[in-house]
Amino acid sequence: MSYYKINNLEEYFKHYKKSIREPRKFWGKVAEENFTWYQTWDKVMEFDMAEADIKWFTNAKVNITKNCIDRHLAKRGNKNAIIFEPNDPKEAAQYITYNELYDRVAKMANVLREQGIKKGDRICIYLPMIPELAVAVLACARIGAIHSVVFAGFSASAIASRIIDCECKMVITSDGAYRGNKTIDLKSIVDEALEKCPTVTTVLVAKRTNTEVKMKEGRDLWLQPLLDEAIPNNVAEIMDAEDPLFILYTSGSTGKPKGMLHTTAGYMVYTAYTFKNIFNYEENDIYWCTADIGWITGHSYILYGPLLNGATTVIFEGVPSYPDFGRFWEVIDKHKVSQFYTAPTAIRSLAKESTEWVDKHDLSSLKVIGSVGEPINEEAWHWYNDHVGKKKCPIVDTWWQTETGGIMISPVPFVTPTKPTYATLPLPGIQPVLMDEKRNEIEGNQVVGSLCIKFPWPSIARTIWGDHQRYKETYFSAFPGKYFTGDGALRDEVGYYRITGRVDDVVIVSGHNLGTAPIEDAINEHPAVAESAIVGFPHDIKGNALYGFIILKEIGEYRDRDNLRKEINEHVASHIGPIAKLDKIQFVSGLPKTRSGKIMRRILRKIAEGDFSNFGDITTLLNPEIVEEIKNERL
Ligand code: ATP
Ligand code: MG
């Protein structure tokens, strides 16, 4: 019997039980039957939760790109691996077969080796959603270089801090990027970032926009001429199961970005397995995930998961609103997409527009539709179900994190009955538990608590790059022996999970999880600012927007408050990115603080939301009088 595919609810429960009772047997069988290995493992898994030390498939040897590409060539060489849909619908789509993908990855891998890149070196990839991005990622994996993809919407200082943290040797970028009707000069952003990054010796530049760029002698090289010279054949590096595959930075709620490190074999097995089941993937499907490869969703479910299954994956360069609000639906129609995977913020923004945009296009190719990134509200769920899925496509509301590598809690379509706003049931191998404040496991149903996972799964991140102590403290210390997700959840009467949001202070703006701490750090650097506190408040389109409470140092030259607001926002845009701009800025004379000096954010959150009804216990406040002032001057 194969465990790779769940066909009905009975099988789901059967596989689930097996995966809990005998996790090693379960994953051993999945790994053995569905991948090619140079050498199999001595042990399926070893772990020590107290030390956050987890290993899967010990001593196995493998290369993930052999599994993503080479092994498909005999049967699927002429099948499309990637369909590239450009930003501008007038530009022709590109169809890249598995044969062609092999050639392109091999050439790129050879270019990297030629430039002196070796197994274990870190490469920062800062590219728009073009085929070169996929090729660069896979080429790194081919030769064992560790990719660190930085979303091409990040600012120079955000890139610099990520490059510095993991000491990248090389940056792969492009002259520019198209985004709707805008052109962004990526190369000049990289140039600015690199002023602070001495470890980078080479920059490879792909051509996309033909923007004029400055090429630094001895450092910068155009990519295409190097590729033209390279041979389309490459011997893959033999990787250990636990060799690093990539580093990916989370939004960083505590200021310094967290470089989550994922390793090879466990990540490969789990992303392939979840892709197959959560999207009900079948051989001739066309799969499309609208995320950016710069996020974990793009790593696991645009590239690795689909390619491991020999699927056709769409890479979309554009945005949902360009040239009009029908763009997503047009692409589904054009490429006859079977699975569509997007984020609640995109759904909400499109649901605001007339349904004519959807109805104009034939969406009958769709089979499964998915959501990821934040809780999907009920209204958006129904709109998605009614207008996009036409009530016949199950919605997979997939809960997971950068740290988890793959989807953890989600319906299996055509197997698990869905329920609006519920991520429903854990995937095989995943053991969620809800914990109370006293660190006890909450038994039974109809309960709420902090969501933890009590047993390792194959694609859990192994560490934070260069800071294992921080990894242990962040994820394994709040509830000893368990992985703490940072999210809260409720479990309903039948055992379905609903994620209620974060336990800490992160605001999800338009689907981007923004830690408030780094934004505050940036604002506090402005010469006029003494201190600041940022909270989220509900916003129709963005889901949440940011509200800043700011204490000024002195008024002096900053008498013009609106100008100052603009300046602060420009400061935020250049330090974090435009996405982190504040919608409201209220200047205050003080912030509510506890006696130990911590800002009491729940009060600010209530004020920002306009809910003055019940501030709860404010007796621990050092300065309770400030609450009145802030409330009265709310914007
Ligand atoms: P950081 O850890 O630095 O704050 P981040 O958490 O913002 O970064 P991600 O790993 O991309 O970065 O986001 C994972 C988080 O997104 C989850 O912990 C959860 O809060 C939220 N999330 C993702 N998918 C869902 C979902 N389907 N339902 C509810 N929340 C979700
Ligand atoms: Mg997180």
TrEMBL record:
Keywords associated with the record: Acetylation, ATP-binding, Ligase, Nucleotide-binding
Span of domain Acetyl-coenzyme A synthetase N-terminal: 12-68
The keyword Cytoplasm is annotated on this UniProt entry: no
Listed SUPFAM superfamilies: Acetyl-CoA synthetase-like
UniProt GO molecular function: acetate-CoA ligase activity
Domain annotation AMP-dependent synthetase/ligase: ranges: 70-461
Top-level class of the enzyme under EC nomenclature: ligase
Enzyme Commission no: 6.2.1.1
Transmembrane segments: none
Residue ranges of every copy of the AMP-binding enzyme C-terminal domain listed in the record: 519-598
Pfam families documented for this protein: ACAS_N, AMP-binding, AMP-binding_C
The UniProt record lists the keyword Acetylation: yes
NCBIfam families according to UniProt: Ac_CoA_lig_AcsA, PRK00174.1
Family of this protein: Belongs to the ATP-dependent AMP-binding enzyme family.
Entry protein name: Acetate--CoA ligase
Organism encoding this protein: Flavobacterium cerinum
